[in-house]
Amino acid sequence: MEISWFQAALLGLFACLSSMPGLGGTSIGNYTLGRPLVGGLICGLILGDLQTGILVGIAMQLVYIALVTPGGTVSADVRAVSYIGIPLAMIAVHSYGLNPASREAQGLATSFGSMVGTLGTVLFYGTATINLAWQHVGWTAVEKGDFKKLYTVNWVLPWISHIICSFIPTLIMCKMGAPMVDLIKTYLPMDGLAMKTLFTVGSLLPCVGIAILLKQIVTKAVDFIPFFFGFTLAASLGINLVSATLVAALFALINYKIKMLSLSKTAVVAADDLDDDDEEDI
Questions:
Q1: pLDDT tens for residues 190-236?
Q2: Is the distance from CB of 233 to CB of 240 less than 8 angstroms?
Q3: What is the 3-state secondary structure (H, E, C) of the chain?
Q4: Cβ of 152: how many Cβ atoms within 10 Å?
Q5: For 20-31, what is each residue's pLDDT tens digit?
Q6: What is the pLDDT of residues 85-128, one digit of tens each?
Q7: Distances in Å between the alpha carbon of 242 and those of 63, 95, 272?
């Protein structure tokens, strides 16, 4: 698999859009286009291999499923994971002749994603640093009362930052990534100790993402029950996680109805008590 300059440019464009606050806010940009699950779909469409793109994106999404950026501090840049790591992982999977759905391919993909994600933090902070200059331009415009200039500061100038720190690195790394993957393939054969170690470590990385997610949502021991229930359904009944999610949605709806009924009964009892108090006062 080779990536053309046009395909690399499209990947660079999506790398910019996934981190542009102006693109419908961070909900559409960072938290949708920037996620590996969505990035895998887009990379698959651009590179003409939808199945491999989605499977690689799923593997990488598990690693970063609970990634948060408190105070702008990031341990990995999912923008780079989605639009640099996924294309390079797709090339690597094809170069080694692996089945994209195999455990080896998933381990290789998560390893590539982790390497690129750590490197992407440099691009993330580079973008933030350049944006400080535009912030200064914005404050100067506010002090002068030139509020119309804020549209330029918000919608136009950030493109310069993202072209420098997102578009150009993605373009070069995706286009030049294939020879590097071939070089890795030459010096790190499939049956070598290094690749076996890489597969093993890569297979463990999704566990880290799930563990971080559990640490955020589990507050007491009984919270584990609904979490493991979905995996039990998938393992015992042979259904996929999408089907398990629909079952979970039904239980969530039932729980919501029960909560609403209990709240309404509490409100009725409180109203009755209030009426009794009023009668005693009279």
A1: 566 665 665 566 566 667 667 777 777 777 877 788 777 777 777 78
A2: no
A3: CCCCHHHHHHHHHHHHHCCCCCCCHHHHHHHHHCCHHHHHHHHHHHHCCHHHHHHHHHHHHHHCCCCCCHHHCCCCCHHHHHHHHHHHHHHHHHHCCCCCCCHHHHHHHHHHHHHHHHHHHHHHHHHHHHHHHHHHHHHHHHHHCCCCHHHHHHHCHHHHHHHHHHHHHHHHHHHCHHHHHHHHHHHCCCCCHHHHHHHHHHHHHHHHHHHHHHHHHCCCHHHHHHHHHHHHHHHHHCCCHHHHHHHHHHHHHHHHHHHHHHHHHHHHHHHHHHHHHHHHHC
A4: 14
A5: 655 555 677 777
A6: 888 888 888 887 888 888 878 877 887 777 777 777 777 778 87
A7: 19, 31, 45
CA separation for the pair 62, 207 (Å, rounded)? 8
pTM given for the model: 0.69
The answer to whether residues 13 and 170 touch, using CB atoms and an 8 Å cutoff, is: no
Please list, residue by residue across 231-255, b when 16 or more beta carbons sit within 10 angstroms of its beta carbon and e when fewer do: eebeeeeeeeeeebeeebeeeeeee
- Please work out, in degrees rounded to the nearest 5, the angle formed at the alpha carbon of residue 167 by the alpha carbons of 162 and 171: 165
From 12, 23, 134, select the one nearest 79 (Cα to Cα): 12
Q: Model confidence at 42, in pLDDT bands (50, 70, 90)?
A: very high
* Residue pair 215/221 in contact by the 8 Å Cβ criterion: no
